[in-house]
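To the wet lab folks,

You asked to see what we're planning to order before we commit. Fair enough. Below is the target structure as tokens, and below that is the sequence we designed to fit it. If anything looks off to you, flag it before the synthesis order goes out.
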């Protein structure tokens, strides 16, 4: 009986540690992703150090919002009412558009007119490339 209890405690401890590691890894991935985006924009848009920090904070906020949406959709898909995948996709796209609009408005306040114009062109090119890959 004691062995069984020890095994159960060890299992739960290992499980908790593994989950904690996963959360840390996801945060590192998010931070790296944001840093990569900012580095790309620094080169392309010639951001000032002040702009770099502000843009980084905007993208971190953007990623947090996106994670919340993904989590809500996952929960809705698992819930008893079983949101179907098409509904979930539509809902997620709507939420993504709202988040992107907010992100763009924040960036518009940070960037100069010329920088923002270049940024929008980059977004358009990325969207175009992404849609070409799908088909």
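Sequence we intend to order:
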């Amino acid at each position: 009986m004691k062995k069984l209890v020890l095994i159960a405690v060890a299992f739960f401890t290992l499980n908790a540690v593994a989950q904690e590691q996963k959360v840390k890894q996801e945060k590192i991935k998010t931070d790296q992703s944001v840093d990569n985006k900012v580095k790309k924009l620094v080169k392309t848009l010639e951001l000032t150090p002040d702009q770099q920090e502000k843009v980084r904070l905007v993208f971190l906020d953007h990623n947090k919002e996106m994670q919340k949406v993904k989590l809500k959709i996952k929960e809705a898909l698992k819930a008893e009412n079983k949101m179907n995948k098409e509904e979930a996709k539509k809902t997620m796209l709507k939420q993504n558009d709202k988040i992107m609009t907010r992100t763009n408005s924040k960036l518009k306040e940070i960037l100069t007119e010329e920088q923002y114009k270049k940024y929008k062109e980059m977004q358009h090119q990325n969207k175009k490339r992404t849609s070409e890959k799908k088909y």
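Structural context that might help your review: Residues 48-113 form one domain. The first helix runs from residue 2 to 45.

Thanks,
Computational group
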